[in-house]
From TrEMBL:
UniProt xrefs under Pfam families: ADH_N, ADH_zinc_N_2
Domain Enoyl reductase (ER) stretches: 23-332
Gene Ontology terms, MF aspect: oxidoreductase activity
Source species of the chain: Lolium multiflorum (Italian ryegrass)
InterPro entries in the cross-refs: ADH-like_N (IPR013154), Chloroplast_QOR (IPR052733), ER (IPR020843), GroES-like_sf (IPR011032), NAD(P)-bd_dom_sf (IPR036291)
Protein name: Enoyl reductase (ER) domain-containing protein
Amino acid sequence: MATTGTTPPAKMRALQYDSCGEGAAGLKHVEVPVPTAKKNEVLLKLQAATVNPVDWKIQKGDMRPLLPRRLPFIPVTDVAGEVVDVGPGVKDLTAGDQVVAMLNSLNGGGLAEYVVAPANMTVKRPSAVSAAEGAGIPIAAGSALKSLRSIGAKFDGTGKPLNVLITAASGGVGLYAVQLAKMANLHVTATCGAGNMDLVRSLGADEVMDYETPEGVSLQSPSGKKYDGVVHCTVGVSWSTFRPLLSSRGKVVDLTPNLSAILTSGLHKVTFAKKSVVPLFLRLNKADLEFLVGLLEEGKLKTVIDSRFPLSEASKAWQTSIDGHPTGKIVVEMEG
Ligand SMILES: NC(=O)c1ccc[n+]([C@@H]2O[C@H](COP(=O)([O-])OP(=O)(O)OC[C@H]3O[C@@H](n4cnc5c(N)ncnc54)[C@H](OP(=O)(O)O)[C@@H]3O)[C@@H](O)[C@H]2O)c1
């Protein structure tokens, strides 16, 4: 039997698309029934959501035939809100809890006033963390965390002082990656646009290169360091560029691997290559989400917000992400 807090209305506002390939213009404002929390789910009244590049890539059709699973589709997975109803089997969350959640990308649902979230990917949000800051976390900080761990970063003080390169350090993933890498005592070389170099430095990067200069294009560390790991958040850099920049067991974690990177990665795996490229396929768990939200609470991690849009203007948030130049996270707020 579900437990109920504030009674939700029968209908809610949402944005959905009913075909792929239409970009921001394809997002339609609709009124749809408020979903119901089933076993191991919670119903959230949303306060904020963030748009990630994967959201519009799914709409573009890049992940067909897997995603979108059905049309029409309410996109977005990274959200923060208040629990208003709890489905059977949920033990650690109750109505009234403020939370951050990562929705299943098969279901989406984040560009709406209410959504059903899996309880095992919903964590409590401390009062020191705003809804917008919390909603920035799941995909972006989660990818930064997983990439750094895969390179060998440790967050308990036991790690080696590795050298890492973070490309697109001013983006949603990159800004979290810089901060997390410094927390793990890594030496950080970063690339970003000229206008963001001071910001990236202020978050801890040791060396920052403008990606539009020859130095930035070369990706070589200005101090001559070889990289033990690369958190690669841009596209268009080949393995032959990375290879000579790596230390003897250096690893490139490619967040947007093309076919060539996937094939190269397969080859590295079967040949037990010392230097390697690995694609990131994000799989986050509740403990990771709790860890990251905890860092926000402690003030050790910061969500940099590029822009905020009300739900009524969420198509502008969508377009901002498609344009590809946000500095940090693009937030949609549900009031308004
Ligand atoms: N595999 C996975 O599970 C996974 C998970 C998360 C993200 N991703 C992918 O990772 C990529 C990054 O995600 P994101 O959320 O960080 O994207 P984002 O926030 O849209 O990144 C935008 C940033 O990238 C910078 N940038 C663009 N081209 C650059 C270049 N050549 N060199 C350096 N900086 C550059 C931009 O700087 P300017 O404004 O100065 O141009 C901007 O600040 C996306 O392709 C995303 O789909 C994959």
